[in-house]
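Researcher: Here's the sequence for the chain we discussed earlier.
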Amino acid sequence: MRIEDHIVVPLDQTFDARYGLEYLEPTRARVTVTPAVLGADGTVQSGVYAAMAESIASTGTAVEVLPNGFIASGLNNSTHVVGAVREGALEAVATCRARGETEWLWDVEIGPPGGPVSAIATVAIAVRPKRV
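Model: Thanks. This is the structure I predict for it:
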């Protein structure tokens, strides 16, 4: 299933496009570090990490549940920045830890490719029947 077939808002018009999220696969994405994502201290803003985690956890859930008549919707996002990144790129990888009937739970690690983890997130995604 292609997620593009179910997207309501074109990717180039989303918040993800504003900060430069590039999907490598539904549960893996990258952001090139630019001045637009840096905070006053010169490091990547914490909201960028949270947004990356939410996006790939939601997408990872959606590609599995949409074909079965369900939708995925963010429920909770707990992102902890554990390292500073000032340049290069960030890569996020999501691992699904639990797939309940109404909620999926994801762990997301984000950091420079091949480098140390700079943020860790736990994201809960609600799974609900699609309204007709």
